[in-house]
Please model this.
Amino acid sequence: MEVMQGSAGGSQLLPLGAGVITLLLTIVAMCSVPSLKDYCRRWWVIKPIPGISPCYPVLGNAPLFERKGEGFFKQLQFYVEELRNRPLFKLWIGPLPFVILYSPENVEVILTSSKHIEKSYLYKFLQPWLGTGLLTSTGNKWRSRRKMITPTFHFEILTDFLEVMNEQGVILLEKLEKHVDKEPFDVFLDITLCALDIICETAMGKNVSAQENKDSEYVRAIYRMSDLIQQRQKSPWFWPDCVYKLFKEGREHDRNLKILHSFTDTVIAEKAAELERTKQMKCNTDGNCEGKGSKKRKAFLDMLLSATDDEGNKLSYMDIREEVDTFMFEGHDTTAAAMNWVLYLLGHNPEAQKKVHRELDEVFGNSERPVTMDDLKKLRYLECVVKEALRIYPSVPLFARTLREDCLIRGYRVPKGTNVLVITYALHRDPEIFPDPEEFRPERFFPENCKGRHPYAYVPFSAGPRNCIGQRFAQMEEKALLALILRRFWVDSCQKPEELGITGELILRPNNGIWIKLKRRQNAGSE
Model:
């Protein structure tokens, strides 16, 4: 059965001349389809899988979808809901077939496999910025790098990172104070800049003061690069590098790339020189050096500079840069989005917010002391609130893999080379597993309510061998900053769900921001 375009809407191709379009499509076909035989084989094998129409030669279903994130995501949701009674369906984005998964049984087949760990073709467009670091690499390189980097998320190192979170959280609180008892304001950027400051200092040991200088060249380049990558992923005519560089988007991409790499290069060079100076001083295993006073806080970059693999080999300069850039890319937008969604949902659910406040009062009383690791362990209800927010609004709304061998999913044969797209946003809304899925109910994640739930029904950090290596870091940051904010303020949300303009791109974000009002909590436990 083919699902027609219907009310989901669609967009036309770029307003280019017919001759230019023909030329671009020919180049795309030559560059993107390595073998006509493979292309035909995949088309024939996945033909029985339900799909949508019309499906055009070479471009597939791409012309049906809007390029802007909000419209694109609405259309994707439409098709998922239309085919919810089917176990999966297919899309053709240009010459690439995608099989769409949104049920836990199907997702489990892919995520538990040690063979299907290769990221989708669309991740290729991250490589100019991130190289083949932990996010984009595969095979032996990925396994070796994952093994090498995992120790950097040891409990003691995360404790050092918590100090940074507290320090940057205090700066955020000072900014939020200016909005108390005033008109609604968009908190999204404030939270995001705080998260960016945290990841800069924990990943690179560099304080960029993004909260105080949101217009810095580096900060602007990070956000613009993310936008450009997302737009390119949805535009097959921009896939070949030789074509992309002819357009203003391609030239802008290269300009921003130079800014990002120059910044990282400078920081790595400074850190390497600092490490060399440290080696020449007498230091103990705790990092205390003669003449330097107290222990120096380590950043992720410090650990990369001294990390070795099983053979004792150190990472090359390019290896280090791609991992630092990867953590900069992955480590702030995701956590910032999660915290914003928590504030939005608590602002609409006062009873849940009161429960959070009661828990915070039990742990902290009236003090404004920094958050500790022991505190985070006690904030069990807040943890359930964060988990429920990530269920309704997962920071990563979809992710993709490329199959390395033929696979059988719910009776359908899916051939090698097919891209499999997991729609986390739809997976988390399965009404059979999460009744009334649009309702905010933190109690869903009480231990007794999780028993018997399918382990792949909830995957905000992915799952299986390629799950998110920074999961503990992210959860720690989200709970710590939310604890700081909610100990001081009462939050009211000022938008209805339909006013958010949800954009499902690299990150699930509200196109129209998160507008809230703040009140200062007068006495702990008084609400």
Remarks:
- The chain is about 50% helix and 10% strand.
- The longest strand covers residues 88-93.
- Residues 1-16 have pLDDT under 50 and may be disordered.
